[in-house]
Write a structure and sequence with these properties.
Blueprint: E1 3-6, E2 12-18, E3 36-42, H1 49-57, E4 64-70, H2 77-83, E5 90-93, H3 99-107, E6 114-117, E7 123-124, H4 128-137, E8 144-151, E9 154-156, H5 168-171, E10 179-182, H6 185-189, H7 200-209, E11 215-225, H8 230-233, H9 235-249, H10 253-267
Parallel strand pairs: 3-4, 3-6, 4-5, 8-11
Antiparallel strand pairs: 1-2, 2-5, 6-10, 7-11, 8-9, 8-10
Length: about 270
């Protein structure tokens, strides 16, 4: 239901929320059937959001929750969300401070034991969640799962904990589509950092691997990660933020400086 918020500048901002949860439908984990929350954050994604919603609606696993956080889009995104409101457990539309602020809003509102991030332009295969639950989550206590996924035309498999010196992208196949994370790990590791605009997911992934938390890999191919996201469209900022994350998480700072210089040289024509 729409509500009005008065900002310090005395301008009115409309906050809207909805979904089946607000209509009294509350999902929860059951024995052998954990509730999995899919999170999508979006801003002006009217051209691509519908495909993501349909991917979630087609999941063969029957204990899935869907949460969408919209950053007050002005392009028809909200119309699409309302069109599919019967398949969305909770949605919120209001201004935010970027992707990771939106992630944190979502995580504070999920009911699932685990969550999965799905970008607007990503693809989640129909039986992806069912397969991971059957193979990794039904009988084992794990804190995160790193699954396989398509990245463009390349199939990426497995997790590589020893590759942290090369960055989070070398440790996992992708934060979006390819990982299921136990929601309560944020109680120990905190929220996604809003100090970064592109690489806070990388920082969080490194915290996962460098903690006592238990992660497992899965051969299940979850879906396809879109290669045209925000971080790919702002390469210079992504390289700089990735370098800052490495300095924050790795012991050998000089090695990180050398790697950063090498990446700048390699990508110079694209900067």
């Amino acid at each position: 239901m729409p509500t009005l918020q008065l900002t310090a500048s005395s301008s009115l901002i409309v906050k809207q929320e909805g979904g089946t949860r607000l209509q009294g439908v509350n999902k929860k984990s059951e024995p052998g059937k954990p509730l999995i929350t899919v999170i999508t954050v979006v801003f002006n994604g009217a051209a691509i959001l519908e495909n993501a919603i349909q991917c979630v609606a087609r999941q063969t696993y029957d204990n899935v929750e869907y949460v969408i956080i919209d950053g007050a889009s002005a392009d028809g995104t909200l119309d699409i969300i309302k069109k599919y409101e019967h398949t969305i457990d909770y949605w919120l539309s209001e201004p935010d401070c970027g992707i990771y602020d939106a992630f944190n809003k979502a995580i504070s509102r999920v009911s699932g034991e685990y969550y999965l991030v799905l970008g607007c332009d990503d693809e989640l295969f129909d039986d992806a969640i069912q397969q991971v639950v059957n193979t990794q989550l039904k009988h084992a206590e794990v804190d995160f799962v790193v699954a396989s996924m398509w990245l463009g035309n390349r199939l990426r498999k497995g997790m590589r904990p020893s590759k942290g010196w090369l960055g989070a992208h070398a440790m996992v196949n992708g934060h979006s589509v390819g990982m299921l994370i136990r929601t309560r790990v944020h109680d120990q590791l905190g929220p996604y950092s809003t100090r970064y605009t592109l690489c806070a997911d990388g920082l969080f992934i490194k915290k996962l691997f460098y903690s006592w938390l238990r992660g497992v890999e899965s051969d299940v191919v979850m879906g396809r990660f879109a290669t045209g996201g925000v971080s790919n469209s702002n390469l210079a900022r992504g390289l700089c933020e990735g370098f800052q994350v490495q300095l924050e998480t790795e012991k050998h700072k000089f090695l990180q400086v050398l790697i950063f210089i090498a990446r700048l040289i390699k990508n110079f024509p694209r900067l």
